[in-house]
Design brief:
Layout lengths: L3 E7 L1 E4 L5 E6 L3 E7 L3 E4 L5 E6 L1
Antiparallel strand pairs: 1-6, 2-5, 3-4, 3-6
Length: 55
Amino acid sequence: MGCVDLPFAVHADLNNTTTPYAFFSGPGCTGIKMTLPAGDFHSFASFNAVSVRAN
């Protein structure tokens, strides 16, 4: 999967896959990166994720 720009900022994820995902603070998978593991439910209220890609 390539980079996906999200239509709104997200503050939580449910990754029910075997692949980690990276969330980014900028469009086009730029800016600050936060990587979340596979099989994870996570919230991040203080981080505005606006793009995502599989790691």
